[in-house]
Amino acid sequence: MGDNKDDHSSPKEENPVLDSETPQPGQSHEDNSLEAIVRQFQDSMSVGKQHKFWETQPVGQFKDVGDTNLPEGPIEPATPLSEVKQEPYNLPAQYEWTTCDMESDETCNEVYALLKNNYVEDDENMFRFNYSKEFLSWALRPPGYYKSWHIGVRAKTSKKLVAFITGIPARIRVRGEVVKMAEVNFLCVHKKLRSKRLAPVMIKEVTRRVHLENIWQAAYTAGVVLPTPVTTAQYWHRSLNPKKLIDVGFSRLGARMTMSRTIKLYKLPDSPATPGFRKMELHDVPAVTRLLRDYLAQFAVAPYFDEDDVEHWLRPVENVIDSFVVESPETHEITDFCSFYTLPSSILGNQNYSTLKAAYSYYNVSNKTPLLQLMNDALIVAKQKDFDVFNALDVMFNESFVKELKFGPGDGQLHYYLYNYRLQQALRPSELGLVLL
Ligand SMILES: CC(C)(COP(=O)(O)OP(=O)(O)OC[C@H]1O[C@@H](n2cnc3c(N)ncnc32)[C@H](O)[C@@H]1OP(=O)(O)O)[C@@H](O)C(=O)NCCC(=O)NCCS
Question: Given a cut of 60, is residue 192 above it in pLDDT?
């Protein structure tokens, strides 16, 4: 199950952007492509499938979809902390739990290596996420993080790290309620230990440790269909270095297209167009916090950031997160904001290239600068920074710019989930204001 679909997206074979010189805004190729039909079929199969583990968990169950008698909110009430299991779950005898100290360079290296070799791949096993150590250290140590939520499994004899799962604390607003949650991520089991039901034990253990901190809800994403997505988002890809993307098999030359026409199609100006567009700095934190708060209030589910969160999550960190503000040249007011994070992928088995440098759209706030122009400036700076591709999910208002800015739809679907929190109805991706790393 973990392997048939994942959230590592590459462009669909029939990339409409590559197929003609001028993409056709508003024309939807993605709904009737063969890939889409196959995917819908696979997804409908997963809905009919048994989920021996997930059926036992407080998550929306497939059988309850459409039942409007069930209330929105927690599925199970919080229990007194004294009733939370005090000892870790049992692992198979050859393995032991370890808490991974992400402040330790040595541990960070071990986690990095486990993920580099065993984490998410695309459907064709051509690319695998290669989160950098700096990225992991940033992603796992936000304000108020718990060391105990960075959970590893080691082989008892060799002490080799063979599995990993993490949680970080976050306040997530679901409609009118701000809920303390864990964001669970980086679930990974070594390739040699797959299909042995280790993942459910990892998930139960992180849940137990989250409960010990008196937190009862979680948010997570997966490329696989589980009970039950709160929304399903799609990846879109904007070529910045089309020649390399084609050479490594990430995208294909469109019909009736030559390489030189393709390169010309994706060419971008040398510098951003918006006056006052500049890198975010520490002193922008209060203004960016206000901008983001107001902006994210429009979505049904979104993080509820305070200034400490913004300082951590949105201040630029080299090779990890890039953020830009638009400062009005006249009033010096901060009017707009955009950001993307750096997540390279290893290119598996290519003679000429080993790494695909990808930027992922993060949080963007358009007030005065049209979103299209703001995102075009984001593409320009990403190109300047030598990214090969710029990726965006169709969450928030991203659908409004992808076609015009020459993104092509990917084959990757990303399903969003909440643990122990029911929504009466699934959301449209545009109603979601949350990006997980
Ligand atoms: C995801 C992964 C840890 C699952 O481990 P596995 O050995 O394939 O599966 P196991 O036998 O241990 O467990 C299977 C159970 O885990 C569930 N599961 C699989 N992938 C899952 C995911 N990404 N999130 C939550 N549950 C998942 C399965 O649905 C199944 O439960 P079910 O019977 O209720 O449906 C493993 O395949 C892996 O490391 N894959 C590469 C990295 C990856 O995709 N990570 C997840 C990113 S979202």
Answer: yes
